[in-house]
Amino acid sequence: MTAANARPQPDPPTPPDPTPASLPAATPQPGPTPQLAATPQHDPAPLPGPAPQAGPASQTGLTQPVPPAQTAPILDWPGTNPAYQSEPPTHPSQPAGPPTHPSPPDGPAAYPGLPDGPDAGGRDAEGGGPRAEPRRRLHPLSPLLNGAKSIAVIVAALSWQTLSQVGLERFAIVVAVLAVGVVIYSVIGWLNTGYHLVGRELRIQDGLLWRRNRAIPLDRLQAVELRRPLLAQLTGLAELRLEVVGGGKTEAPLAYLSVKEASALRERLLALAGRTPGSGEQATAEQAPMPERPLFRVRNRDLVISQLLTPQAFFLPVGVAFVVTQFVLEGSWTFIGIASTVTAMAGVVLQPVRRVLQDWDFRLGRDPDGRLSVRFGLVETRSQIVPLNRVQAIGVTWPLLWRLQGWLHLRLDIAGYAGPQSGGDDKRSDRLLPVGVFEAGRLLVWEVLPGVDLGALPTAPPPRRARWLHPFAFRAMGAGLTPEVFVARTGVLTREMTLVPYARLQSVRVIQGPVQRLLNLATVYADTAGGQSGVAKDRDVAEAWWLAEQLSVRARQARGPAPLVTSAANEPIDAHWQRPDYA
Amino acid sequence: MTQPGTNPPGAPLSALEPWPETVQWRPVSRSLITVELINRATWVVVVLAGLGAGWWFNRHWFWPAAMALVVVAAIWRSVVTVRAVRAWGYAERDNDLLVRHGLVVRRLSIVPYARMQFVDVTAGPLERAFKLATVQLHTASAASDAKIPGLDPAEAARLRDRLTALGEDRAEGL
């Protein structure tokens, strides 16, 4: 570390025992819990191709043998299907004949023949040598589930207006016809979708008219998430989502696999992704189901109260009163009118409700390899596993109304993370702590960024003349360099703090606007791949240059002396990220 | 040393010249001024033609006033452009690339070679006519802007090769 001795190290906020009295410990639970349920999730179905028309490709798709309805993967699929023989040459089909690996995926132990070297995967696996695995299909129920999602979207699009115009009977017919079409389309899409592991790449083929072959290098894997929407929970399925850098959306959502298959595949992917040359063998060999170490669990009572303390929840009574008085004054009580109003109201009210449903039963843990595992959700349960060296930054937020309770919110910035609707932040799945007291936040920050004590982060305010620019926010602003992270604070009503580990800095910028020039101030940005920059606003110019210089020097030192490696997987500063004392 | 606010002695105070003793700033080509001016002139002509057409159909004092405004703005922007191009600069240090630009809003980017994801070299038709090219360094962060316009093609190629070579040497992924 660069300047670790510059100031006395604060006491670690927590001893390795992660269960202080105020923090109820999570019960270790290996799989996502099936939950009670309410409404289906409106995810745009990612798998079907561009348009629901049956082109020539789909004709050939239909002629291929329908596999038995089993969770076992389809093994003899390439080679028999004419559609696959016209594939681009990046994915040559398996050599004709029976596949070499007839065993179903039971876990990493079943694949001892995987390449061991750091660069063995991917390149030499072309041509379907003994290392290439047979292509597998998604679970046979997935087209039904995907279809159900599309139907929900269609019904929502048709809206009350249409229902009132065409009448219930026709409405039902239209929906039914569309439903059948969507399901047929999904089945064809399912027949054309497959995935397999080749060396250190996951390859996914899908698409109907526009066929798509994607090879995802596992070196670049940022996080893996197992999602189980309501319907998937009822049917025992799960969706596996891989996050890689680049691309605004989640690459390669594998929807759906059986839970067992999905978790086995996830373990394998993570084992391959985290493998360094030295630890090649153990990574695959020692995947015995070791229990993960529970870290923290958010009480559902706190979660509900915290969402009641949001502006939306406060405005709800006002909104209801407004609507009721309007109806009373107008005197029109038609069904459609009420239904439309309720729908419109739902849009406003839904956000806190949705947050409660999403963050329900929030549990954090460390898996045996030291990765962070996050599970949450009521209607749609999610279970993410994030390697700690993929955390780009941590955002701490103190909303105004939560400060009465002393609560805060922690956010993890992970490169490439974007929810299906990446616009809204409530859909983003990178939270570290939806709500919690300060001590809990301190504990978690210490876990994720070892050596960083949320209670002892010195920040210096900008020079007093910055008051001209920020008369109110001035007192809340600050920036500081600690041995491990760059800290930036801002915000009056909602206080925010960004912690950027030096090792994750991408670039440093210094920007000076015209007014700032008059005041001899400048703003320093510390950019990360997570999209959130640490911003030290309105520093004195000389200090800004000094900050920029320090940031770039520390970023270099945190990464260690520039090693002459060409593989991005060998993170040389892994030692920096090791757990504090129980490693 | 870790306390911000305590500045090392002799800290630079100029907004455009940080670390004068260690950094050799290199300017961009002056031909970029011509390119920028031609670009602006084209736009001004198009806008003036539109306003002139408006005046032809509707004899209102608004049209000539707008035209005069456009001309004045264009002249002022051109003066700024000349100075702004002189303000562009870049410097290659041992471990990072520095790019500074802007007059009204002054920006400096420090991009370590190790964080480079890819390098773009582009040249539009007008730039090609004046033998110029633009090099842009991309990192995994969308916010990084390390763009150097107005480079001689040979210099652009040299910079590109040097950046990619350094990036490979120091590649550390994310």
What does this structure look like?
Chain A: This is YdbS-like PH domain-containing protein. Chain A: It comes from Winogradskya humida. Chain A: Keywords: Membrane, Transmembrane, Transmembrane helix. The complex is a heterodimer of chains A (583) and B (174). Chain A contains 13 helices and 19 strands. Chain A is of the alpha+beta class and 583 residues long. Chain A has 3 domains: 234 residues, no CATH class; 60 residues; 169 residues, no CATH class. In chain A, strands 6-5-4-10-9-8-7 form a 7-stranded antiparallel β-sheet, with helices on both faces. In chain A, strands 13-12-11-16-15-14 form a 6-stranded antiparallel β-sheet, sandwiched between helices. In chain A, strands 1-2-3 form a 3-stranded antiparallel β-sheet. In chain A, a hairpin with a 3-residue loop joins strand 14 and strand 15. In chain A, helix 9 packs antiparallel against helix 10. The two termini of chain A are 18 Å apart. Chain B is an alpha+beta fold and 174 residues long. Chain B has 2 domains: 54 residues; 81 residues, PH-domain like, CATH 2.30.29. In chain B, 43% of the residues lie in helices and 22% in strands. Chain B has 4 helices and 7 strands; from the N terminus they run E-H-H-E-E-E-E-H-E-E-H. In chain B, strands 1-2-3-4 form a 4-stranded antiparallel β-sheet. In chain B, strands 5-6-7 form a 3-stranded antiparallel β-sheet, covered by helices on one side. In chain B, strand 6 and strand 7 form a beta hairpin. In chain B, helix 1 packs antiparallel against helix 2. The longest helix of chain B has 27 residues. Chain B is elongated, with a radius of gyration of 21 Å. At the A-B interface, strand 14, strand 17, strand 18 and helix 13 of A face strand 4 of B. Strand 17 of chain A pairs antiparallel with strand 4 of chain B.
